[in-house]
Amino acid sequence: MIAGIDYGLGNLFSLISSLKALGAEAVVTSDAQEISRAERLILPGVGAFGDAMARLHSIGLDNLLQEQAASGKPLMGICLGMQILFEEGYEYGHHQGLGLIPGQVASLEADLRQSGYALKIPHMGWNALTIHQKDCPLMKNSHDGDFVYFVHSFYARDCDEYVVASAEYGLAVPAVVNNGNVYGCQFHPEKSGKVGLTILKAFIELEA
Amino acid sequence: MITKRIIPCLDIRDGQVVKGVKFKDVKNVEDPVAMARFYNESGADELVFYDITATVEKRPLFTDVLKRVAAEIFIPLTVGGSINSLDDFDRVLKAGADKVSVNSGAIKNPRLISAAAEKYGDQCVVLSMDAARVDGAFHVFAKGGREDTGMDAVEWAVRGEKLGAGELVINSIDADGVRGGFDLPMLAAIAERVDIPIVASGGAGKKEDFLELFALPGIDAGLAASIFHFRQVDIKELKAYLSRNGVQMRL
Fold this sequence. Notes:
Chain A is α/β, with parallel strands linked by helices. Chain A is 28% helix and 33% strand. In chain A, helix 1 (13-21) links the parallel strand 1 and strand 2 (26-29). An 8-stranded parallel beta barrel of chain B has the order 1-4-5-6-7-10-11-12, surrounded by 7 helices. In chain B, a hairpin with a 2-residue loop joins strand 1 (5-13) and strand 2 (16-21). In chain B, helix 1 runs parallel beside helix 2 (60-70).
């Protein structure tokens, strides 16, 4: 069973529907026992880094997720859920993340500007993946040039060795990240058509 | 880099897809879920659903359609029609919408845009407007294009962006249903003044119209209904054609 972590941020309707379409058993939950029982965890999220961490903390899920990740259970963060897997975030102040992947989350707009790019923020729409770690099990059926759907204004940086795939938007924006049993997608696999379903399927098929 | 987007639009009345010519004479096309499935298969980058149901009693039919589509179509869905409050946002977001488009509701109460942007994020709020030429200017029309508000369309777009809209849908009433091409002068006038993505709507008749559209700076997407519904333009062919001509597309 897959548990989609419900902490009041983001809509899990499409995520759960896509998992079900792939034949997986999936529930939306914030219950510690149910999360502990699940074989795999997905941490979604739409909103701001600090708010997300505060919400997880207020229901005691930050520690639980850290324990679950340490136990070797496959965990995948999506969008903001990916960002809070990192050590720290700089969205409306400085916040500690779950610290499951080394690196930080910073403003894409500020870094684009500093690099001389005048691109629209949020980075929103379909963009192509460049896969750097082709042996990553999450990418087993994905290809360079596959298009996925992004909507975000902050991005992960200083995490080069954990970047499985990136998308070019002025900078090489980390799109898929991985550290051991912890995975993250900056884009929305549940909104990325067949390509996205392929990635979710690979997650379902990871050895638990 | 981000691709340009091709977006079929489904007008839903009482749970069924309809399409009007110049907003009148609506006729039934097909089942919305079947059509969504067809568009998903044929490479649509996003789907837009407008609820044009007239009565409150029949409105739940739309939410039901949305849920059924969202349960099996995994590309971004934008929903509009009768969005007047945060409760309306909530209702369609919970039924599977990713973005919510406001039109008359925002004209009546512009703060709906800022309130929704604060609660759900800019990326979730789409300001959609119906505009037409009146005395040498572009005016915003309310109530499905029937009522001239006297508001200037360019100024309304600028204000919408300031209030927190993350995207604009510009539908030209003059061009709608005529299939003579997008309303490039209107789109250019608005694109010059805003930075958020613009979705052009109204007037698409053939694939060349889209090539002309994407030559215009600041236009991110082309939206159409009847030419896709009646299979006059095939989305896969259209995207291949645009790609061959240098437009970035998801193929």
